Structure formats: structure tokens, C-alpha cells
């Protein structure tokens, strides 16, 4: 019974700790495993009912607290199931006005290059964005330069290298170091097959982890800077990459409100992309967000490539009507976003 009390107390705390908006990693890390916490709290509830012989005040307090946890977690996770409301409606894919993308964190120290090459050959996307790529990865991906007419290569040894390949014309390209001089991001204007122009923001912000970055300040600021850029951009836009943040976190929701973009996961599923090698620790870290001009044709998580991430694939089409139901920021949320960006730039 002592262990039951200890575990119950810890997971009750772990459930509600993310409500504290501090940027410290030891708080933000509890944003990630919400489904896992739901299942563990359910087991703990069963444990109290099964092993506690006296239904006294202590019993009812623990049960009430654990039921509160379950209700809170259900409210947070349901939007990312088929029971939730879709933010973007499905439309038929049109190669002329559409784009097919693959986003893949290949894990810099993974040397199974052939797996991503084989996957790209099979899927044949219009654009491939690969992160955590050093010079060895850039050399190994040379084969893609024969398949794709445009490529951008920023190989780095710090796990923040980027490679991008596309067979669509790049009309404008900019490399930014929005927060950190060692962490690049891309901003591209791309022309679709029917001549329409769109913008792609490709990012990979730093995660809040001990030993690398003890707070999420820089990650949050970069995500929100790009959200504001997309909102101000008159062109249809996509934000893609490993954001090192889960779809249901407060920061990601704030990004959706600031950018007024759509998350294709909502109303469909979690589409977990991390951790590829540890099934019990999986959550959605890799993202593709769409502005209101797009409709969704397909979203899927692709087979493993030897990395700790699964690649994610999306097909989207520019539509003549708004197929999205996006969120909007109120005055306080806009102020909070400005403050988070200011903190990240300090």
C-alpha cells in the first residue's frame, strides 16, 4: 500500500505539473506522455479499488484525485482522436495544385542511409525535409540530387543540420538563425505545378533537456516567431519539422492561435513519430501545419528508418474555399506570445 500511495502521488503531480507555465525542462517534460499517464492512472485506480479493503476517507480522496487526472487527460487527448473535431477537412489530391511532403529526423548517428533513400524512392514526394544531418548524411543523400532538381544543404555536426530536396521550383530561399547562431531554419517560396506560390517554413528548434538546454524558452520563441511570420504572410504556408514539442502542449496550442494554422492530427489521431524504438514512450514530435488555404488529402506515419523518429508524410492541396476551422488568440495570448519571443531573444 505504501508503493500504491507513492506512485499515485507522483502521477497525480505529473498530470497537473504542466499547468505551471514555467519553462524549466523538469516541468515541460511532463507535457509529452499524456496518453501514458492516462493508462498508468487507470491502473492505479484499479489498484485502489482492488487492494484497499476499507472505503474510508483516504480511499475516496485518492480515487477522486485520480479520477480528476483522468478527466483532465481525456480532455487534452480527445482532440487528437477520431472523437475530436477536425481542424481541416479532407479533399482529393491534385498533383497540379497540391504538394506531397516527407519530414524525417534521421538521427545524426544513424548510418542506415539506405532506408531513407528507399523510402523516398517508394513514396516519391515533391519535397523531402531531413533534419539531424551531418556531412556524412549530406554525402550519403547525394543520390537524391539526381531525383530532385532543387536542394538545400546545411550539414552540421551539432544535430541541427538540415537537408531539403524538391522537384518544385524554389522562387525564394532564406536561411535564418532565429534564436541560436548554431541552429538554422529555412524559409522558402515554392511554385506548385499550376504556378501558384506557397511558403514553407522548415524548422528544428532545440528541445528542453538537461545538459543541452535546461529551459524551453528558445524552443518556444522559435516556434512562435515562425507562427507570427506565417500569419503575416499573404501566401499560403506550411510549417514543417521536428518541433521538439508535442501536439497537445500549451506552446503548440499557442502557436496555432498565433498563426491561425491547422493541425491535421486534430480529429484524426496522434500519429506518433517518437520514440521509434521504445513503443511505450511514443508521442507526436514531428509536425506539418497548414494555413487556411489548404485542404488535407493524406497524413501518415511512415516505417522506421533506423532513427529514433518515424518520418511523417502529408499530401495537401490548395483549395478555392476555406476547409479549416482554426483557433484565434485573444489579447492576453498575443501578449504572452510576445513575451515568450522576447525571452527567447534575450
Automatic annotation (TrEMBL):
- Give UniProt keywords alphabetically: Endonuclease, Exonuclease, Hydrolase, Membrane, Nuclease, Transmembrane, Transmembrane helix
GTP-binding is among the record's keywords:
no
The UniProt transmembrane annotation reads 6-23, 35-53, 59-78
Q: Where is the Endonuclease/exonuclease/phosphatase domain?
A: 105-309
Q: Which domain of life is it from?
A: Bacteria
**Gene Ontology terms, MF aspect:** endonuclease activity; exonuclease activity
Q: List the InterPro entries hit by this protein, alphabetically.
A: Endo/exonu/phosph_ase_sf, Endo/exonuclease/phosphatase
Protein name according to UniProt: Uncharacterized conserved protein YafD, endonuclease/exonuclease/phosphatase (EEP) superfamily
Task: Give the organism, scientific name.
Answer: Algoriphagus ornithinivorans
Amino acid at each position: 500500500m505504501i508503493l500504491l500511495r507513492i506512485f499515485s502521488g507522483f502521477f497525480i503531480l505529473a498530470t497537473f505539473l504542466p499547468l505551471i507555465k514555467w519553462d524549466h525542462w523538469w516541468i515541460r517534460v511532463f507535457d509529452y506522455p499524456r496518453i501514458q499517464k492516462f493508462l498508468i492512472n487507470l491502473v492505479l485506480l484499479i489498484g485502489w479499488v482492488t487492494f484497499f479493503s476499507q472505503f474510508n476517507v483516504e480511499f475516496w480522496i485518492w480515487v477522486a484525485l485520480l479520477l480528476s487526472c483522468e478527466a483532465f487527460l481525456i480532455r487534452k487527448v480527445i482532440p487528437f482522436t477520431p472523437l475530436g473535431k477536425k481542424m481541416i477537412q479532407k479533399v482529393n489530391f491534385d498533383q497540379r495544385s497540391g504538394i506531397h511532403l516527407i519530414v524525417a529526423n534521421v538521427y545524426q548517428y544513424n548510418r542506415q542511409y539506405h532506408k531513407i533513400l528507399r523510402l523516398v524512392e517508394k513514396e516519391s514526394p515533391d519535397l523531402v525535409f531531413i533534419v539531424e544531418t551531418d556531412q556524412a548524411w549530406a554525402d550519403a543523400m547525394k543520390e537524391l540530387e539526381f531525383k530532385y532538381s532543387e536542394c538545400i544543404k546545411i550539414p552540421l555536426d551539432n544535430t541541427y543540420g538540415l537537408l531539403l530536396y524538391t522537384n518544385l521550383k524554389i522562387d525564394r530561399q532564406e536561411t535564418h538563425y532565429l534564436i541560436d547562431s548554431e541552429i538554422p531554419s529555412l524559409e522558402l517560396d515554392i511554385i506548385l505545378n499550376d504556378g501558384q506560390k506557397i511558403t514553407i517554413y522548415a524548422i528544428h528548434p532545440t528541445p528542453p533537456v538537461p545538459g543541452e538546454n535546461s529551459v524551453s524558452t528558445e524552443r518556444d520563441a522559435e516556434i512562435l516567431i515562425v507562427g507570427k511570420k506565417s500569419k503575416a504572410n499573404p501566401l499560403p504556408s506550411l510549417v514543417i519539422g521536428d518541433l521538439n514539442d508535442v501536439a497537445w502542449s500549451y506552446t503548440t496550442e499557442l502557436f496555432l492561435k498565433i498563426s491561425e494554422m491547422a493541425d491535421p492530427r486534430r480529429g484524426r489521431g496522434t500519429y506518433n513519430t517518437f520514440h521509434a524504438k521504445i513503443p511505450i514512450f511514443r508521442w507526436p514530435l514531428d509536425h506539418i501545419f497548414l494555413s487556411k488555404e489548404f485542404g488535407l488529402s493524406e497524413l501518415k506515419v511512415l516505417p522506421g528508418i533506423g532513427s529514433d523518429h518515424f518520418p511523417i508524410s502529408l499530401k495537401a492541396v490548395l483549395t478555392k474555399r476555406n476547409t479549416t476551422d482554426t483557433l484565434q488568440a485573444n489579447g492576453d495570448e498575443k501578449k504572452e506570445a510576445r513575451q515568450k519571443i522576447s525571452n527567447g531573444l534575450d
